[in-house]
């Protein structure tokens, strides 16, 4: 039985891919193939783009208009066939902190088309979260912090009441750039890398509960973390 404590922990902002749902290996297959086709001289291409919006990827690497349209179609077809399974413990953690009064939002670089596939695969998806913020809603891609700052704004909370949960380097940087407590999930990057760009690093949501995150946030706000 979890205990409730008075806490500054009011808002949880979750990245989606690699944080809540186990999709990054599927994306790696796709983007590694695109790297072989279009950027054979960039061996870290898949990692370089991880956590950024499709628009940002296309603007940076596929500027030619016909190729841009081809890539949009390739990505769309791939995402329609993907699995969108939650990591073990992720749903339980979200449900648990919502029971403690924490507002929960997905803050993802995914677009609306991709989210339709996610919702189709997980019919209860929208019941788990208070808001879902997608790439169309913020002006810049991670590592810019605007997506997470929007997350605080929609709940009318200050950054010291918000916690970011992320796995990708660009997302972790965005969390840190926002000034919020940033919890790194060691799911898609080496542990030492995740720890470098986060305040707290864990392997799974099973390692967390409301009281632990509240304690991390209190220590962060006191400058003791």
Quick tags:
single chain, 6 strands, globular, six-stranded parallel β-sheet, 225 residues, alpha/beta, Rossmann fold
Tell me about this structure.
It is a single chain. With 225 residues, this protein is of the alpha/beta class. Helices cover 47% and strands 11% of the residues. The chain has eleven helices and six strands. A six-stranded parallel sheet has the order 3-2-1-4-5-6, with helices on both faces. Strand 5, helix 10 and strand 6 form a beta-alpha-beta unit. The longest helix has 17 residues, at 65-81.
Q: What's the structural blueprint in terms of helices and strands?
A:
Elements: E1 11-14, H1 24-38, H2 45-49, H3 54-61, H4 65-81, H5 90-99, E2 103-107, H6 112-121, H7 125-128, E3 131-133, H8 146-154, E4 162-166, H9 169-178, E5 181-185, H10 191-196, E6 200-202, H11 210-221
Parallel strand pairs: 1-2, 1-4, 2-3, 4-5, 5-6
Helix content: 40-55%
Helical segment tally? 11
What structural class should be given to the helix and strand makeup?
Answer: alpha/beta
CATH fold topology of the largest domain: Rossmann fold
Q: Under the CATH scheme, which architecture of the largest domain would be assigned?
A: 3-Layer(aba) Sandwich
What is the H-and-E element order?
A: EHHHHHEHHEHEHEHEH
- Total E-strand runs: 6
């Amino acid at each position: 039985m979890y205990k409730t404590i008075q806490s500054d922990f009011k808002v949880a902002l979750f990245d989606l891919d690699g944080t809540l749902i186990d999709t990054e290996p599927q994306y790696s297959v796709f983007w590694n193939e695109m790297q072989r086709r279009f950027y054979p001289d960039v061996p870290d291409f898949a990692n370089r783009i991880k956590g950024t919006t499709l628009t940002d990827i296309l603007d940076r690497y596929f500027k030619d208009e016909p190729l841009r349209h081809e890539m949009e179609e390739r990505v769309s077809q791939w995402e329609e066939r993907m699995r969108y399974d939650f990591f073990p413990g992720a749903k339980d953690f979200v449900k648990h902190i919502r029971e403690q009064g924490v507002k929960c939002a997905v803050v993802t670089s995914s677009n609306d088309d991709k989210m339709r596939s996610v919702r189709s695969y997980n019919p209860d998806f929208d019941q788990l979260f208070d808001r879902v913020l997608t790439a169309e809603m913020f002006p810049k891609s991670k590592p810019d912090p605007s997506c997470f700052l929007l997350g605080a704004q929609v709940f009318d909370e200050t950054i010291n009441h918000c916690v970011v949960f992320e796995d990708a380097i660009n997302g972790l940087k965005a969390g840190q750039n926002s000034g919020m407590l940033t919890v790194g999930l060691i799911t898609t990057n080496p542990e030492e890398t995740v720890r470098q760009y986060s305040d707290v690093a864990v392997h799974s949501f099973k390692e967390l509960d409301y009281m632990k995150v509240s304690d991390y946030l209190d220590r962060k706000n006191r400058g003791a973390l």
